Amino acid sequence: MSVTYAAVQWNRQKKLYDSVIAGGVALYLGRFVGVGAMVHPQATAETLLIRGLGTAAFLLLHVVLSIGPLTRLDRRFLPLLYNRRHLGVTMFTLALGHGVFSLVQFHALGDVPPLVSLLTAPARFEQLGLAALTILFLMAATSHDFWLKLLTPPGWKRLHMLVYLAYALLVAHVSLGALQSERNPLFVGVVLTGACVVLGLHVAAWGAGRGYVEVCEVERIGENRAVLLKLGDEKIAVFRHGGKVSAISNVCAHQGGPLSEGKIVDGCVTCPWHGYQYLPETGASPPPFTEKVAVYETKVEGGKVLVSRCAKTSSI
Amino acid sequence: MREDEFYIGYLPQAPAGVRRVVRRVAIGLLTMGAVLSVALVLGQMPFAAASFEYGMVRGFDGVLYERPFPHVVMEDGASYLLAGAGKLGTREAMGHDGRQVRLRGSRVRRAGMTMIEVETGSARFGSGHGPEQVTVLGRRRLRGEVVDGKCYLGVMNPGAGQVHRDCAVRCLAGGLPALFVTGGEVLVLEGFDAKARRNEVGVPLTLEGVRKKVGGLEVLELTGR
Protein backbone atom coordinates (compact mmCIF):
# COMPACT_ATOMS: atom_id res chain seq x y z
CA MET A 1 0.00 0.00 0.00
CA SER A 2 1.26 3.48 -0.78
CA VAL A 3 0.21 7.08 -1.27
CA THR A 4 3.07 8.01 -3.62
CA TYR A 5 4.73 6.47 -6.65
CA ALA A 6 8.20 5.01 -6.35
CA ALA A 7 10.17 2.99 -8.88
CA VAL A 8 10.09 -0.02 -6.57
CA GLN A 9 8.78 0.03 -3.02
CA TRP A 10 11.39 -2.26 -1.63
CA ASN A 11 10.73 -4.38 1.40
CA ARG A 12 12.28 -7.48 2.87
CA GLN A 13 9.97 -9.91 1.05
CA LYS A 14 10.65 -8.29 -2.34
CA LYS A 15 14.39 -8.38 -1.72
CA LEU A 16 14.18 -12.07 -0.83
CA TYR A 17 12.03 -12.78 -3.89
CA ASP A 18 14.38 -10.90 -6.21
CA SER A 19 17.46 -12.52 -4.68
CA VAL A 20 16.07 -15.94 -5.49
CA ILE A 21 15.24 -14.83 -9.07
CA ALA A 22 18.70 -13.30 -9.63
CA GLY A 23 20.48 -16.27 -8.06
CA GLY A 24 18.43 -18.77 -10.04
CA VAL A 25 18.99 -16.96 -13.35
CA ALA A 26 22.74 -16.57 -12.69
CA LEU A 27 23.07 -20.26 -11.79
CA TYR A 28 21.10 -21.32 -14.88
CA LEU A 29 23.15 -19.19 -17.27
CA GLY A 30 26.42 -20.06 -15.55
CA ARG A 31 25.72 -23.78 -15.82
CA PHE A 32 24.44 -23.55 -19.40
CA VAL A 33 27.43 -21.59 -20.69
CA GLY A 34 29.97 -23.28 -18.41
CA VAL A 35 28.92 -26.86 -19.11
CA GLY A 36 28.36 -25.93 -22.76
CA ALA A 37 31.90 -24.61 -23.11
CA MET A 38 33.27 -27.80 -21.57
CA VAL A 39 31.29 -30.37 -23.56
CA HIS A 40 31.04 -28.33 -26.78
CA PRO A 41 34.44 -26.64 -27.13
CA GLN A 42 33.65 -25.83 -30.77
CA ALA A 43 30.62 -23.76 -29.81
CA THR A 44 31.21 -20.01 -29.68
CA ALA A 45 30.43 -18.01 -26.54
CA GLU A 46 27.83 -16.03 -28.52
CA THR A 47 25.98 -19.17 -29.53
CA LEU A 48 25.94 -20.51 -25.97
CA LEU A 49 24.75 -17.15 -24.64
CA ILE A 50 21.99 -16.87 -27.24
CA ARG A 51 20.77 -20.34 -26.40
CA GLY A 52 21.17 -19.94 -22.65
CA LEU A 53 19.29 -16.62 -22.58
CA GLY A 54 16.56 -17.94 -24.88
CA THR A 55 15.92 -21.14 -22.95
CA ALA A 56 16.04 -19.29 -19.60
CA ALA A 57 13.46 -16.74 -20.78
CA PHE A 58 11.20 -19.41 -22.27
CA LEU A 59 11.30 -21.57 -19.13
CA LEU A 60 10.76 -18.56 -16.87
CA LEU A 61 7.70 -17.55 -18.90
CA HIS A 62 6.16 -20.90 -17.96
CA VAL A 63 6.70 -20.10 -14.27
CA VAL A 64 5.16 -16.64 -14.73
CA LEU A 65 2.12 -18.08 -16.50
CA SER A 66 1.66 -20.87 -13.95
CA ILE A 67 1.57 -18.67 -10.84
CA GLY A 68 -1.91 -17.21 -11.52
CA PRO A 69 -3.78 -20.51 -11.84
CA LEU A 70 -1.72 -22.09 -9.05
CA THR A 71 -2.85 -19.40 -6.59
CA ARG A 72 -6.46 -19.92 -7.60
CA LEU A 73 -6.11 -23.65 -7.02
CA ASP A 74 -4.20 -23.42 -3.75
CA ARG A 75 -3.75 -20.23 -1.71
CA ARG A 76 -0.42 -21.49 -0.35
CA PHE A 77 1.10 -20.30 -3.64
CA LEU A 78 -0.07 -16.70 -3.06
CA PRO A 79 3.38 -15.43 -1.97
CA LEU A 80 4.64 -16.26 -5.47
CA LEU A 81 2.12 -13.78 -6.85
CA TYR A 82 3.31 -10.94 -4.62
CA ASN A 83 6.30 -9.94 -6.76
CA ARG A 84 5.39 -11.66 -10.03
CA ARG A 85 5.97 -8.46 -12.01
CA HIS A 86 9.68 -8.63 -11.13
CA LEU A 87 9.73 -12.19 -12.43
CA GLY A 88 8.09 -10.93 -15.63
CA VAL A 89 10.56 -8.08 -16.07
CA THR A 90 13.45 -10.51 -15.48
CA MET A 91 12.01 -12.83 -18.11
CA PHE A 92 11.71 -9.91 -20.56
CA THR A 93 15.32 -8.87 -19.87
CA LEU A 94 16.53 -12.39 -20.66
CA ALA A 95 14.42 -12.47 -23.83
CA LEU A 96 15.76 -9.05 -24.83
CA GLY A 97 19.33 -10.30 -24.39
CA HIS A 98 18.52 -13.31 -26.55
CA GLY A 99 16.96 -11.07 -29.18
CA VAL A 100 19.76 -8.49 -29.28
CA PHE A 101 22.51 -11.09 -29.43
CA SER A 102 20.63 -12.93 -32.19
CA LEU A 103 20.07 -9.72 -34.15
CA VAL A 104 23.78 -8.89 -34.02
CA GLN A 105 24.89 -12.46 -34.70
CA PHE A 106 22.58 -13.23 -37.61
CA HIS A 107 21.77 -9.85 -39.15
CA ALA A 108 24.46 -7.25 -38.36
CA LEU A 109 27.43 -6.29 -40.59
CA GLY A 110 25.59 -7.17 -43.79
CA ASP A 111 24.50 -5.34 -46.92
CA VAL A 112 21.34 -3.94 -45.26
CA PRO A 113 20.60 -2.65 -41.72
CA PRO A 114 20.01 -5.44 -39.15
CA LEU A 115 16.31 -4.72 -38.58
CA VAL A 116 15.63 -4.62 -42.34
CA SER A 117 17.41 -7.95 -42.63
CA LEU A 118 15.35 -9.42 -39.80
CA LEU A 119 12.00 -8.15 -41.06
CA THR A 120 12.62 -9.42 -44.60
CA ALA A 121 14.20 -12.74 -43.62
CA PRO A 122 12.62 -15.83 -45.17
CA ALA A 123 12.74 -18.20 -42.18
CA ARG A 124 9.93 -16.29 -40.37
CA PHE A 125 10.52 -17.78 -36.90
CA GLU A 126 12.69 -14.82 -35.94
CA GLN A 127 9.89 -12.41 -36.82
CA LEU A 128 7.56 -14.37 -34.54
CA GLY A 129 10.13 -13.95 -31.78
CA LEU A 130 10.32 -10.20 -32.45
CA ALA A 131 6.52 -9.91 -32.23
CA ALA A 132 6.53 -11.73 -28.89
CA LEU A 133 9.39 -9.56 -27.63
CA THR A 134 7.43 -6.42 -28.56
CA ILE A 135 4.49 -7.59 -26.46
CA LEU A 136 6.76 -8.52 -23.57
CA PHE A 137 8.36 -5.06 -23.81
CA LEU A 138 4.96 -3.35 -23.57
CA MET A 139 4.14 -5.46 -20.53
CA ALA A 140 7.48 -4.88 -18.82
CA ALA A 141 7.37 -1.14 -19.56
CA THR A 142 3.88 -0.80 -18.07
CA SER A 143 4.39 -3.10 -15.09
CA HIS A 144 4.51 -0.18 -12.65
CA ASP A 145 1.44 1.00 -10.70
CA PHE A 146 1.76 4.37 -12.46
CA TRP A 147 0.66 2.69 -15.68
CA LEU A 148 -2.01 0.70 -13.89
CA LYS A 149 -3.61 3.99 -12.84
CA LEU A 150 -3.04 5.69 -16.18
CA LEU A 151 -4.44 2.84 -18.28
CA THR A 152 -7.15 2.04 -15.68
CA PRO A 153 -7.26 -1.48 -14.24
CA PRO A 154 -9.44 -2.97 -17.06
CA GLY A 155 -7.23 -1.43 -19.78
CA TRP A 156 -4.04 -2.52 -18.02
CA LYS A 157 -5.45 -6.01 -17.57
CA ARG A 158 -6.37 -6.24 -21.27
CA LEU A 159 -2.84 -5.21 -22.24
CA HIS A 160 -1.27 -7.74 -19.92
CA MET A 161 -3.54 -10.54 -21.10
CA LEU A 162 -1.50 -10.27 -24.32
CA VAL A 163 1.05 -12.43 -22.51
CA TYR A 164 -0.92 -15.43 -23.79
CA LEU A 165 -0.47 -14.21 -27.37
CA ALA A 166 3.23 -13.72 -26.65
CA TYR A 167 3.44 -17.26 -25.30
CA ALA A 168 1.73 -18.68 -28.41
CA LEU A 169 4.12 -16.68 -30.62
CA LEU A 170 7.09 -17.99 -28.68
CA VAL A 171 5.94 -21.61 -28.93
CA ALA A 172 5.72 -21.07 -32.70
CA HIS A 173 9.13 -19.28 -32.67
CA VAL A 174 10.76 -22.24 -30.93
CA SER A 175 8.89 -24.88 -32.94
CA LEU A 176 9.72 -23.32 -36.33
CA GLY A 177 13.26 -22.43 -35.28
CA ALA A 178 15.31 -24.44 -32.80
CA LEU A 179 13.12 -27.56 -32.97
CA GLN A 180 13.77 -27.77 -36.73
CA SER A 181 17.49 -28.12 -36.12
CA GLU A 182 17.72 -30.07 -32.87
CA ARG A 183 17.15 -33.81 -33.27
CA ASN A 184 17.07 -34.73 -29.57
CA PRO A 185 13.45 -35.49 -28.52
CA LEU A 186 14.22 -33.79 -25.20
CA PHE A 187 13.59 -30.41 -26.81
CA VAL A 188 10.19 -31.33 -28.22
CA GLY A 189 9.41 -32.97 -24.88
CA VAL A 190 10.24 -29.82 -22.91
CA VAL A 191 8.11 -27.60 -25.17
CA LEU A 192 5.16 -30.00 -25.10
CA THR A 193 5.40 -30.58 -21.35
CA GLY A 194 5.57 -26.84 -20.74
CA ALA A 195 2.51 -26.19 -22.91
CA CYS A 196 0.59 -29.02 -21.18
CA VAL A 197 1.48 -27.67 -17.71
CA VAL A 198 0.41 -24.11 -18.58
CA LEU A 199 -2.77 -25.24 -20.34
CA GLY A 200 -3.61 -27.86 -17.71
CA LEU A 201 -3.24 -25.42 -14.80
CA HIS A 202 -5.41 -22.83 -16.54
CA VAL A 203 -8.13 -25.36 -17.32
CA ALA A 204 -8.03 -26.68 -13.75
CA ALA A 205 -8.21 -23.16 -12.30
CA TRP A 206 -11.05 -22.27 -14.66
CA GLY A 207 -12.91 -25.40 -13.58
CA ALA A 208 -12.33 -24.61 -9.92
CA GLY A 209 -13.53 -21.07 -10.50
CA ARG A 210 -16.72 -22.36 -12.06
CA GLY A 211 -17.30 -24.75 -9.13
CA TYR A 212 -17.64 -23.37 -5.64
CA VAL A 213 -16.95 -20.11 -3.94
CA GLU A 214 -15.93 -19.83 -0.30
CA VAL A 215 -18.44 -17.91 1.84
CA CYS A 216 -17.23 -17.90 5.44
CA GLU A 217 -16.58 -20.17 8.41
CA VAL A 218 -19.68 -22.16 9.26
CA GLU A 219 -19.75 -20.84 12.86
CA ARG A 220 -20.20 -17.31 11.54
CA ILE A 221 -23.73 -18.18 10.43
CA GLY A 222 -26.14 -18.17 13.30
CA GLU A 223 -28.42 -21.21 13.74
CA ASN A 224 -31.53 -20.77 11.54
CA ARG A 225 -30.04 -17.52 10.23
CA ALA A 226 -28.30 -16.57 7.01
CA VAL A 227 -25.45 -14.58 5.58
CA LEU A 228 -25.62 -12.79 2.25
CA LEU A 229 -23.31 -13.85 -0.58
CA LYS A 230 -22.90 -11.62 -3.62
CA LEU A 231 -21.72 -13.33 -6.80
CA GLY A 232 -21.59 -10.72 -9.52
CA ASP A 233 -25.19 -9.60 -9.95
CA GLU A 234 -26.52 -12.58 -8.02
CA LYS A 235 -27.42 -12.36 -4.34
CA ILE A 236 -27.60 -15.61 -2.41
CA ALA A 237 -28.87 -16.26 1.13
CA VAL A 238 -26.79 -18.95 2.88
CA PHE A 239 -28.61 -20.51 5.85
CA ARG A 240 -27.45 -22.81 8.66
CA HIS A 241 -30.08 -25.05 10.19
CA GLY A 242 -30.04 -28.33 12.10
CA GLY A 243 -26.38 -29.06 11.30
CA LYS A 244 -26.92 -28.40 7.57
CA VAL A 245 -26.16 -25.49 5.26
CA SER A 246 -28.50 -24.43 2.42
CA ALA A 247 -28.31 -21.64 -0.12
CA ILE A 248 -31.20 -20.08 -2.00
CA SER A 249 -31.75 -16.90 -3.98
CA ASN A 250 -31.91 -13.86 -1.71
CA VAL A 251 -34.91 -12.45 -3.57
CA CYS A 252 -38.34 -13.45 -2.29
CA ALA A 253 -40.74 -14.46 -5.07
CA HIS A 254 -43.45 -12.31 -3.51
CA GLN A 255 -42.16 -8.71 -3.53
CA GLY A 256 -38.42 -9.19 -3.66
CA GLY A 257 -37.84 -9.18 0.09
CA PRO A 258 -34.28 -9.98 1.33
CA LEU A 259 -34.47 -13.61 2.41
CA SER A 260 -30.99 -13.46 4.03
CA GLU A 261 -32.50 -11.13 6.63
CA GLY A 262 -35.19 -13.69 7.35
CA LYS A 263 -35.11 -16.76 9.58
CA ILE A 264 -35.87 -20.44 9.35
CA VAL A 265 -39.17 -20.99 11.13
CA ASP A 266 -40.75 -24.44 11.29
CA GLY A 267 -38.13 -25.72 8.85
CA CYS A 268 -38.88 -23.02 6.24
CA VAL A 269 -36.96 -19.93 5.21
CA THR A 270 -39.30 -17.12 6.14
CA CYS A 271 -39.17 -13.74 4.41
CA PRO A 272 -38.81 -10.78 6.81
CA TRP A 273 -41.22 -8.65 4.81
CA HIS A 274 -44.40 -10.66 4.46
CA GLY A 275 -43.60 -14.09 5.91
CA TYR A 276 -43.52 -15.98 2.62
CA GLN A 277 -41.88 -19.32 3.21
CA TYR A 278 -39.55 -21.64 1.26
CA LEU A 279 -38.06 -25.05 2.00
CA PRO A 280 -34.28 -24.48 2.23
CA GLU A 281 -33.38 -27.70 0.38
CA THR A 282 -35.67 -27.18 -2.66
CA GLY A 283 -36.46 -23.46 -2.69
CA ALA A 284 -40.15 -24.35 -3.08
CA SER A 285 -42.90 -22.98 -0.86
CA PRO A 286 -44.59 -25.73 1.18
CA PRO A 287 -47.84 -27.05 -0.37
CA PRO A 288 -50.33 -25.82 -1.32
CA PHE A 289 -48.26 -22.74 -2.18
CA THR A 290 -46.43 -22.74 -5.50
CA GLU A 291 -43.74 -20.03 -5.21
CA LYS A 292 -40.18 -21.10 -5.83
CA VAL A 293 -36.72 -19.52 -5.66
CA ALA A 294 -33.39 -20.75 -7.08
CA VAL A 295 -31.32 -23.17 -5.01
CA TYR A 296 -27.52 -23.53 -4.94
CA GLU A 297 -25.29 -26.49 -4.04
CA THR A 298 -23.47 -26.15 -0.74
CA LYS A 299 -20.76 -28.01 1.11
CA VAL A 300 -18.61 -27.53 4.19
CA GLU A 301 -14.88 -28.18 3.91
CA GLY A 302 -12.42 -27.55 6.73
CA GLY A 303 -15.04 -25.53 8.59
CA LYS A 304 -15.62 -23.27 5.55
CA VAL A 305 -18.96 -22.96 3.79
CA LEU A 306 -18.75 -23.29 0.01
CA VAL A 307 -21.56 -22.41 -2.41
CA SER A 308 -21.77 -23.34 -6.08
CA ARG A 309 -21.44 -20.49 -8.55
CA CYS A 310 -24.31 -21.83 -10.66
CA ALA A 311 -27.83 -22.46 -9.35
CA LYS A 312 -28.86 -26.11 -8.96
CA THR A 313 -32.51 -25.30 -9.71
CA SER A 314 -33.96 -22.11 -11.08
CA SER A 315 -36.89 -20.18 -9.67
CA ILE A 316 -39.23 -21.43 -12.42
CA MET B 1 0.75 -24.22 6.79
CA ARG B 2 -1.98 -23.53 9.31
CA GLU B 3 -5.43 -22.40 8.23
CA ASP B 4 -5.17 -19.09 10.09
CA GLU B 5 -1.85 -18.14 8.50
CA PHE B 6 -2.06 -15.25 6.07
CA TYR B 7 0.71 -13.82 3.93
CA ILE B 8 1.12 -10.05 3.61
CA GLY B 9 4.03 -9.15 1.36
CA TYR B 10 4.96 -5.82 2.92
CA LEU B 11 5.31 -7.26 6.43
CA PRO B 12 8.92 -8.10 7.28
CA GLN B 13 8.33 -11.74 8.10
CA ALA B 14 6.07 -14.28 6.41
CA PRO B 15 4.26 -16.77 8.69
CA ALA B 16 6.31 -19.89 9.41
CA GLY B 17 4.06 -22.24 7.44
CA VAL B 18 4.04 -19.94 4.41
CA ARG B 19 7.83 -19.64 4.58
CA ARG B 20 8.10 -23.42 4.58
CA VAL B 21 5.91 -23.80 1.51
CA VAL B 22 7.62 -20.99 -0.42
CA ARG B 23 11.06 -22.38 0.45
CA ARG B 24 10.04 -25.78 -0.95
CA VAL B 25 8.67 -24.21 -4.13
CA ALA B 26 11.85 -22.13 -4.59
CA ILE B 27 14.11 -25.15 -4.03
CA GLY B 28 11.98 -27.18 -6.45
CA LEU B 29 12.17 -24.52 -9.16
CA LEU B 30 15.91 -23.98 -8.69
CA THR B 31 16.49 -27.73 -8.87
CA MET B 32 14.38 -27.97 -12.01
CA GLY B 33 16.38 -25.10 -13.51
CA ALA B 34 19.63 -26.84 -12.62
CA VAL B 35 18.55 -30.11 -14.22
CA LEU B 36 17.14 -28.44 -17.34
CA SER B 37 20.16 -26.18 -17.88
CA VAL B 38 22.47 -29.20 -18.00
CA ALA B 39 20.06 -31.45 -19.90
CA LEU B 40 19.37 -28.85 -22.59
CA VAL B 41 23.03 -27.99 -23.10
CA LEU B 42 24.01 -31.66 -23.27
CA GLY B 43 21.11 -32.51 -25.56
CA GLN B 44 22.11 -30.09 -28.32
CA MET B 45 23.25 -31.34 -31.68
CA PRO B 46 27.04 -31.77 -31.78
CA PHE B 47 29.00 -28.80 -33.07
CA ALA B 48 31.18 -29.23 -36.14
CA ALA B 49 34.96 -29.36 -35.91
CA ALA B 50 35.45 -25.93 -37.41
CA SER B 51 37.48 -22.91 -36.37
CA PHE B 52 37.83 -19.19 -36.93
CA GLU B 53 41.16 -17.68 -35.92
CA TYR B 54 39.52 -14.44 -34.82
CA GLY B 55 42.10 -11.73 -34.18
CA MET B 56 44.97 -13.96 -35.36
CA VAL B 57 46.22 -12.31 -38.55
CA ARG B 58 48.68 -14.11 -40.86
CA GLY B 59 50.30 -13.33 -44.18
CA PHE B 60 49.45 -15.30 -47.32
CA ASP B 61 51.20 -15.47 -50.71
CA GLY B 62 49.67 -17.00 -53.82
CA VAL B 63 47.92 -16.35 -57.09
CA LEU B 64 44.55 -14.66 -56.97
CA TYR B 65 41.61 -15.76 -59.11
CA GLU B 66 38.16 -14.17 -59.13
CA ARG B 67 35.95 -17.06 -60.30
CA PRO B 68 33.82 -18.80 -59.22
CA PHE B 69 34.50 -16.76 -56.06
CA PRO B 70 37.67 -14.86 -55.14
CA HIS B 71 40.33 -17.33 -53.96
CA VAL B 72 44.06 -17.62 -53.67
CA VAL B 73 46.00 -20.62 -54.97
CA MET B 74 48.87 -21.23 -52.58
CA GLU B 75 52.29 -22.61 -53.50
CA ASP B 76 51.23 -26.13 -52.42
CA GLY B 77 48.29 -26.02 -54.83
CA ALA B 78 45.63 -25.55 -52.17
CA SER B 79 42.94 -22.96 -52.91
CA TYR B 80 41.77 -20.66 -50.11
CA LEU B 81 38.47 -18.83 -50.61
CA LEU B 82 38.46 -15.15 -49.64
CA ALA B 83 35.94 -13.23 -47.57
CA GLY B 84 35.56 -9.65 -46.44
CA ALA B 85 34.72 -8.40 -42.97
CA GLY B 86 31.32 -9.20 -41.43
CA LYS B 87 28.77 -10.56 -43.90
CA LEU B 88 30.37 -9.09 -47.00
CA GLY B 89 32.48 -10.53 -49.75
CA THR B 90 35.98 -9.14 -50.27
CA ARG B 91 36.60 -6.34 -52.75
CA GLU B 92 40.35 -6.82 -52.65
CA ALA B 93 40.30 -9.21 -55.62
CA MET B 94 38.40 -7.04 -58.12
CA GLY B 95 40.34 -6.45 -61.31
CA HIS B 96 43.34 -8.57 -60.35
CA ASP B 97 42.39 -11.97 -61.75
CA GLY B 98 45.42 -14.20 -62.28
CA ARG B 99 47.93 -11.97 -60.51
CA GLN B 100 50.37 -12.81 -57.76
CA VAL B 101 49.08 -11.51 -54.42
CA ARG B 102 50.35 -11.01 -50.90
CA LEU B 103 47.65 -10.34 -48.33
CA ARG B 104 46.92 -10.57 -44.65
CA GLY B 105 43.95 -12.15 -42.92
CA SER B 106 42.50 -14.68 -40.45
CA ARG B 107 41.89 -18.31 -41.34
CA VAL B 108 38.50 -20.03 -41.21
CA ARG B 109 38.81 -23.81 -41.49
CA ARG B 110 36.63 -26.88 -41.65
CA ALA B 111 37.22 -30.39 -42.96
CA GLY B 112 40.11 -29.57 -45.25
CA MET B 113 38.63 -26.36 -46.62
CA THR B 114 40.11 -22.97 -45.76
CA MET B 115 38.88 -19.44 -46.17
CA ILE B 116 40.71 -16.20 -45.39
CA GLU B 117 38.91 -13.22 -43.92
CA VAL B 118 41.00 -10.60 -45.66
CA GLU B 119 42.22 -7.58 -43.72
CA THR B 120 40.90 -4.61 -45.68
CA GLY B 121 43.61 -2.87 -47.71
CA SER B 122 46.24 -5.49 -47.00
CA ALA B 123 46.47 -6.97 -50.54
CA ARG B 124 49.55 -6.21 -52.64
CA PHE B 125 49.62 -7.44 -56.23
CA GLY B 126 52.49 -8.66 -58.37
CA SER B 127 52.93 -10.03 -61.89
CA GLY B 128 50.27 -11.96 -63.80
CA HIS B 129 50.00 -15.71 -64.18
CA GLY B 130 48.13 -17.82 -66.68
CA PRO B 131 44.50 -18.86 -66.28
CA GLU B 132 43.59 -21.41 -63.63
CA GLN B 133 43.30 -25.04 -64.69
CA VAL B 134 39.68 -26.22 -64.96
CA THR B 135 38.74 -29.92 -65.21
CA VAL B 136 35.14 -30.75 -66.12
CA LEU B 137 33.88 -33.94 -64.43
CA GLY B 138 30.40 -34.15 -66.00
CA ARG B 139 26.79 -33.35 -65.13
CA ARG B 140 25.48 -34.08 -61.65
CA ARG B 141 22.09 -33.90 -59.93
CA LEU B 142 22.72 -33.53 -56.19
CA ARG B 143 20.66 -33.02 -53.06
CA GLY B 144 21.98 -30.79 -50.30
CA GLU B 145 21.76 -27.37 -48.65
CA VAL B 146 22.99 -24.00 -49.89
CA VAL B 147 25.02 -22.21 -47.20
CA ASP B 148 27.41 -19.29 -47.06
CA GLY B 149 31.04 -20.34 -46.98
CA LYS B 150 32.22 -18.06 -44.20
CA CYS B 151 29.78 -19.20 -41.52
CA TYR B 152 29.77 -22.85 -42.60
CA LEU B 153 33.54 -23.12 -42.51
CA GLY B 154 33.72 -21.88 -38.94
CA VAL B 155 32.80 -18.25 -38.25
CA MET B 156 29.52 -19.54 -36.90
CA ASN B 157 28.81 -22.89 -35.40
CA PRO B 158 26.34 -24.16 -36.44
CA GLY B 159 26.70 -22.49 -39.83
CA ALA B 160 23.89 -24.42 -41.49
CA GLY B 161 20.29 -25.47 -40.88
CA GLN B 162 17.14 -23.61 -39.93
CA VAL B 163 18.50 -21.51 -37.06
CA HIS B 164 21.27 -20.19 -39.30
CA ARG B 165 19.14 -19.79 -42.41
CA ASP B 166 18.51 -16.04 -42.26
CA CYS B 167 22.18 -15.39 -41.56
CA ALA B 168 23.15 -17.44 -44.61
CA VAL B 169 20.72 -15.41 -46.74
CA ARG B 170 22.31 -12.17 -45.49
CA CYS B 171 25.88 -13.44 -46.04
CA LEU B 172 25.17 -14.64 -49.56
CA ALA B 173 23.43 -11.37 -50.41
CA GLY B 174 26.59 -9.62 -49.20
CA GLY B 175 28.67 -11.50 -51.75
CA LEU B 176 30.25 -14.24 -49.66
CA PRO B 177 31.03 -17.53 -51.47
CA ALA B 178 28.11 -19.96 -51.72
CA LEU B 179 28.67 -23.59 -50.83
CA PHE B 180 26.49 -26.60 -51.54
CA VAL B 181 26.67 -29.10 -48.68
CA THR B 182 25.70 -32.56 -49.88
CA GLY B 183 25.80 -35.82 -47.97
CA GLY B 184 29.24 -36.66 -49.28
CA GLU B 185 31.07 -33.45 -50.09
CA VAL B 186 31.07 -29.67 -49.86
CA LEU B 187 31.11 -27.92 -53.23
CA VAL B 188 31.65 -24.30 -54.16
CA LEU B 189 28.42 -23.27 -55.87
CA GLU B 190 28.83 -21.23 -59.04
CA GLY B 191 25.97 -19.40 -60.70
CA PHE B 192 23.55 -19.41 -57.75
CA ASP B 193 21.62 -16.13 -57.71
CA ALA B 194 21.50 -15.72 -53.94
CA LYS B 195 19.13 -12.73 -53.97
CA ALA B 196 16.60 -14.16 -56.40
CA ARG B 197 16.69 -17.61 -54.82
CA ARG B 198 16.89 -16.54 -51.16
CA ASN B 199 14.00 -18.82 -50.19
CA GLU B 200 16.07 -21.82 -51.29
CA VAL B 201 18.95 -21.03 -48.96
CA GLY B 202 19.32 -23.15 -45.82
CA VAL B 203 16.70 -25.75 -46.75
CA PRO B 204 17.03 -29.19 -48.37
CA LEU B 205 17.32 -28.67 -52.13
CA THR B 206 18.11 -30.58 -55.32
CA LEU B 207 20.41 -28.85 -57.80
CA GLU B 208 21.65 -29.88 -61.22
CA GLY B 209 24.83 -28.63 -62.83
CA VAL B 210 28.31 -29.31 -64.08
CA ARG B 211 30.70 -30.76 -61.58
CA LYS B 212 34.19 -29.46 -62.13
CA LYS B 213 37.48 -28.82 -60.46
CA VAL B 214 38.82 -25.26 -60.59
CA GLY B 215 42.39 -25.27 -59.31
CA GLY B 216 42.02 -26.77 -55.83
CA LEU B 217 38.29 -26.00 -55.54
CA GLU B 218 35.55 -28.62 -56.00
CA VAL B 219 32.80 -26.75 -57.86
CA LEU B 220 29.22 -27.28 -58.98
CA GLU B 221 28.32 -24.83 -61.76
CA LEU B 222 24.58 -24.42 -62.04
CA THR B 223 23.16 -24.87 -65.50
CA GLY B 224 19.51 -25.54 -64.62
CA ARG B 225 17.18 -25.82 -61.62
Could you state the order of secondary-structure elements of chain A as H and E? HHHHHHHHHHHEEEEEEEEE
- The largest beta-sheet of chain B arranges its strands as 2-3-4-6-5
Q: Biggest interface pair, residues each? A: A-B, 64 and 58 residues
Oligomeric form: heterodimer
> What is the approximate shape of chain A?
elongated
What structural class is derived from the secondary structure elements of chain B? alpha+beta
Keywords:
heterodimer, A: 316 residues, alpha+beta, 2 domains, six-stranded antiparallel β-sheet, three-stranded antiparallel β-sheet, 11 helices, B: 225 residues, OB fold (Dihydrolipoamide Acetyltransferase, E2P), five-stranded mixed beta barrel, five-stranded mixed β-barrel, 3 helices, 12 strands, elongated
Description:
The complex is a heterodimer of chains A (316) and B (225). Chain A has 316 residues and is an alpha+beta fold. Chain A folds into two domains: 12-181, no CATH class; 215-313, Rieske [2Fe-2S] iron-sulphur domain (Rieske Iron-sulfur Protein, 3-layer Sandwich), CATH 2.102.10. Chain A contains eleven helices and nine strands. Chain A has helices at residues 12-39, 45-73, 78-82, 84-107, 114-119, 125-141, 145-151, 153-160, 163-176, 178-181, 185-211; strands at residues 212-217, 226-231, 234-241, 244-249, 263-265, 268-270, 277-278, 295-301, 304-313. In chain A, a hairpin with a 2-residue loop joins strand 5 and strand 6. Chain B folds into three domains: 1-44; 50-128, OB fold (Dihydrolipoamide Acetyltransferase, E2P) (Beta Barrel), CATH 2.40.50; 134-224, no CATH class. Chain B has helices spanning 16-42, 149-155, 165-173; strands at 50-52, 58-65, 71-73, 79-83, 99-110, 113-118, 124-128, 134-148, 178-182, 186-190, 204-214, 217-224. Chains A and B meet through helix 1, helix 2, helix 3, helix 4 and helix 10 of A and helix 1 and helix 3 of B.
